Amino acid sequence: MNTFLRNLSPSQQVGLLFVLVFGILTAISVAAFVMSLKDTHEDDLHTQKLKEFNGVLRTSWLMSTVFWIGWTLGETVATVLFGLVAFFALREFITLSPTRQGDHRSLVLAFFVVLPVQFALVITRRFDLVTVFIPVYVFLAIPVVSALADDPQRFLERNAKLQWGIMVCVYGISHVPALMLLKFPNYEGKNAFLVFFLVFVVQSCMIVEYLVGRRLQRPPSAPNVSKSFNWTSWLIAVVAASLLGGLLAGLTPFKPAQAVAMAFIACVSGSLGHLVMKALKRDRGIPNWGKRGVGVTGASGLLDRVDALCFGAPIFFHSVRWYFGL
Amino acid sequence: MNDKLSPLLAKLMGLFLLGLIRTLTGAQARWQGCPPKAEQRIYFANHQSHADLVLMWAALPEELRSITRPIAAKDYWTKTPFKKWITTAVFNAIYVDRAKTGDQDPLEPLVEALTHGDSIILFPEGTRGNHEEPQKFKAGLYNLALKFPGVVLVPAWINNVQRVMPKGEVVPVPILCSVTFGVPIALGDGEDRGEFLARARQAVMDLRDS
Asked: Terminus of chain B with fewer CB atoms < 10 Å: N or C?
């Protein structure tokens, strides 16, 4: 089996990975469909859970398709696709953060200048600039535009919100395609595995944390922010996902120990980032970024799905670059 | 413009605008009080921006869009040839004079459209408000309801549009907007004008938090 895999060309290996992912998704979707036939009670708790699950499933289909299209059409198209994801995520974030008329120009700057420039930097592989463009240059430019709008009311708060939106939605997401463009020696054509590694490890960490949390029933560590977060199940999840990352080392340019360490870094930042996003949601008084009827706006809830990745990707990217001196 | 070319151009422009509006705002329609149905209707909504008209147009499903005509303020939407072309060829709008001139009844074009069997989109505040709550409704809605008792009156709340493009700005910003359609109301037997208008305004405002 192992030699068979090694004899395949990189693109065949990646293709196999997609066949596997789509196969699993199809199996789960069919199972969910059959389950939905069985239930008829509308407000049953079970039906409600199934509905929620279907939402997650749909996002998985969407994300996998985006990845697949990105992979088949090349890195540039993939980066543009992630740019679109960032655009929709930022749209969702801004919708739920009240802005004033004075913020209009800063918003125009964020959506139509900062976002395209950041992804253009990624496409052209200017990674040093990718890392500092938003935290340094944009961080200082946005308040200038806001100040020129001549509206001092809640100035700091409004700017902080916008900065955060850009940081999470644009900066965070732009580091996912950046991983695909990173040049490892002897790893040409296989960078899709690196993205898969990051996404898979972070998502597994979230799922394990959820499952362990339900089993252990520990008191939450920060009950006002999250009813489910506690240090014990968090630690178990991070360790489990890191070990899983070690098992996947063969897919990556890392040695097993390095893979465990990299997975650990990604999981810690991703899961804690998810907690931070929860705090932001509590501050806005909403349970989800896009639940219909609650957020009033009919947002699609994209940010709920990608928030862990938004925090995990930049730190993962930076650690990889720094450690391997790329 | 060439006669053969212009319907095609209008169609393309319509598709382009739909794409643009959906990318920027989502233009989500939430049919809470009634289903989207091809019956003759008067949709009446709050008015905060000139883009309200465009958003309502985009939120309606394709089949209803072709039989529903929005009301456009004549002075704003005929200012340039491009605006005029868009409102007539793409939105199929009805122009209304906001400044009363002489003895002409400003409702006349609306009456004509309703007689033809079209549905219309009305902003009963008359002008754009920039307050949280809609202003008092003008009598037009009452007069039309009296004249056309068979037409269904559907209240609608347009959310967030003023944030997309505040007064005086040119570049729109992407923010999610939605239109909520409520339970239809009807003019009661011998109902007082003021009473009815207050009730209609309340029906629109009730949709804000639902």
From this structure: N
